[in-house]
Amino acid sequence: MSQPGKSDALMSHDELEAVLRLTGAERYHNLHRFHKRQYSGQCTYEEVQAWALNRYYYQASIPIKDAAVLTRMNDADDRRAWRKRIEDHDGLKEGDGGIERWLKLTDSLGFSRDYVKSTVGILPGTRFAVDAYINFCKERTLLEAVASSLTELFSPTIIGERVTGMLAHYDFVSKETLAYFTARPEQAKRDSEFALAYVKEHAKTREQQDLVVAALEFKCHVLWTQLDAIWTAYIDKLPPAGVWVPGTHVAQQGKAA
Questions:
Q1: CB of 35 within 8 A of CB of 167?
Q2: Domain boundaries 13-240, CATH class
Q3: Can you tell me the distance from the alpha carbon of 87 to that of 122, in angstroms, rounded to the nearest whole number?
Q4: Distance between alpha carbon 182 and the CA centroid of its chain, in Å?
Q5: Interval 31-69: pLDDT, tens
Q6: 4, 55, 85, 220: least surrounded by Cβ within 10 Å?
Q7: At a CB cut-off of 8 Å and minimum separation 6, what does 221 contact?
């Protein structure tokens, strides 16, 4: 549905891309105060722990989301391109892939793998945001589901800031423990190029183009909401009942109670 005062004219491919890039420039979570706190070295060890623990739920859910999108693609070329995303996160064998590399980060931050994988300690805001993203990709049109992945257009910037800043300021991380991010810029470039070409080709009406932009806005909100939840719980010190408490569930404790 068109917004009041907005033209109903079909945008050119270049115009659509410009609107999408402006959306990211205004809404992507590199602008969030938690990200700025993190890469500038102001986070405590416990705040970084909270971020890694909660972010695991997002990372582990990405291939589930991508599998749902894959089942809706009728074109074999599209499926071949899209399934690389699942391979990137799940790996092609045990001990490989992005999720495994994320677990190595939570390992290094003192968490039991059983506890991390259980997700029992994550924030409700994290769970609701990530689950909403999975449901969005299942229930909305394929065009919208693909468009929601376009936050990857902006991920190389936030990854560069995060990794450079964390390595400079925190002695409890290293290039090895942040290895998840090593491959992501190249993967994100490949994936975002596919998604951008896809939405340009398949958004054939102004209404569809507006849905593409709205899908990207929604995904930006998903990422922003996760950082809002962490800020409220661990910086404002207003955690909801039942979530992870700093100092608990470290690796030597084994399985979560």
A1: no
A2: mainly alpha
A3: 25
A4: 15
A5: 999 999 999 999 999 999 999 999 999 999 999 999 999
A6: 4
A7: 27
Do the beta carbons of residue 187 and residue 83 sit within 8 Å?
no
Euclidean distance between CA atoms 168 and 174, whole angstroms: 10
Q: Which among 116, 58, 74 has a CA at the least distance from the CA of 251?
A: 116
Rama region for 249: left / alpha / beta (φ>0; ψ in -120 to 50; rest): left
- What's the mean per-residue pLDDT of the chain? 94
- Every domain of the chain and the residues it spans: 13-240
How far apart are alpha carbons 60 and 154 in whole angstroms? 20
CA-CA distance, 149 to 257, in Å (whole number)? 36
Pick the closest to residue 99 from 133, 68, 60 (CA basis).
Answer: 60
The pair of three-digit structure tokens given for residue 59, joined into one six-digit string: 């990372």
CA-only gyration radius of the chain, Å: 19
How far from 89 is each of 28, 86, 100, 127, CA to CA, in Å? 22, 5, 8, 19
Residues 171-209 pLDDT 10s: 999 999 999 999 999 999 999 999 999 999 999 999 999
* Tokens at 111, concatenated: 């968490």
Among 10, 19, 62, 1, CA closest to 217? 19
Q: How many CB atoms lie within 10 A of CB 37?
A: 17
Token pair belonging to 100: 């495994």
Whole-model pTM: value is 0.93
- Token pair belonging to 71: 């089942």
